[in-house]
Design goal:
- The chain is α/β, with parallel strands linked by helices.
- It has a single domain (17-112, 134-247), classed as Rossmann fold (3-Layer(aba) Sandwich).
- The chain has eight helices and ten strands.
- The longest helix is centred in the first third of the chain and has 20 residues, at 25-44.
- It starts with 5 loop residues before the first helix and ends in a 6-residue tail after the last strand.
Length: 253
């Protein structure tokens, strides 16, 4: 079956994500962490493990820090994946997303298993453990250009590949400088490996944490504009169980 056009997708069945608004990023992170922990615990009552995908970005730090401190979560039954990684950075580069997630979250809880993207391996190598069983929960954010993971616009919302190599656009690369991850645009890699939009949204439940005034336009367009690859985050409205957390800066207009 051919992929839908943006017009066809906008007229197809869509959902209204739950929108939760908080005064600041810390309050946002605490609330999201409570909700995510409850979702994990609820699933572990009826299944042997929970499989989760995590984003690596400063916008996710408050939620992940609070999630690591949540009581009563059996992390030994949680398998973790991360959703994107730069190509071309040195193995020890602190900007690598796998390293960031280890520092921020993965090494702070006793996870049952952690699968990190190897930028030197083909995308298919990461797709295999990802496809071994269904994904339960995806925790992500929205980029200033509306990207999900490293799916910059225009993105294929029906991409048949679960993982692929992409070229990063300048807006996305500039965000990495503005976030303080790199000193200059020239230092930001031009290529990355990423989970595709369908892979991210294959999860049963999606938690999207988007603090900061620089994200307001993207959040507004994602929740209220047409659905299509011109703004990948608009695909969140095709998921039946998505919660979007915003603060005063990022709340939609």
């Amino acid at each position: 079956m051919p992929a839908m056009t943006d017009r066809e997708r906008s007229s197809a069945a869509t959902y209204t994500p739950v929108l939760r608004r908080f005064p600041d990023p810390e309050a946002l992170g605490r609330a999201a962490a409570r909700d995510i922990a409850a979702a994990i615990t609820r699933r572990l009552e009826t299944r042997p493990e929970v499989r989760m995908i995590f984003a690596a970005a400063p916008s996710q730090e408050a939620a992940l820090r609070a999630l690591a401190a949540q009581p009563g979560v059996d992390w030994t039954r949680v398998t973790a994946f991360h959703m994107d990684e730069y190509l071309g950075l040195d193995d020890g580069a602190p900007q690598r997303f796998g390293a960031w997630l280890r520092r921020t979250f993965f090494d702070r809880v006793p996870l049952g298993a952690v699968h990190l993207i190897d930028p030197d391996a083909p995308p298919e190598a990461y797709a295999r453990p990802l496809a071994a069983a269904p994904i339960d929960i995806t925790c992500l954010g929205i980029g200033v250009n509306g990207h999900l993971a490293f799916n910059d616009p225009p993105a294929d919302l029906d991409d048949p590949a679960p993982v692929k190599v992409v070229e990063l656009d300048e807006v996305c690369r500039r965000q990495q400088v503005d976030d303080g991850c790199f000193a200059t645009l020239a230092e930001v890699p031009e290529r990355a490996i990423t989970l595709t939009v369908p892979a991210l949204l294959s999860a049963e439940e999606v938690f999207c944490m988007v603090p900061g005034a620089r994200k307001r336009d993207a959040v507004t367009a994602a929740l209220r504009g047409p659905i299509g690859g011109h703004l990948p985050a608009s695909a969140l409205r095709t998921h039946p169980r998505c919660v979007v957390y915003v603060d005063e800066g990022s709340a939609p207009r």
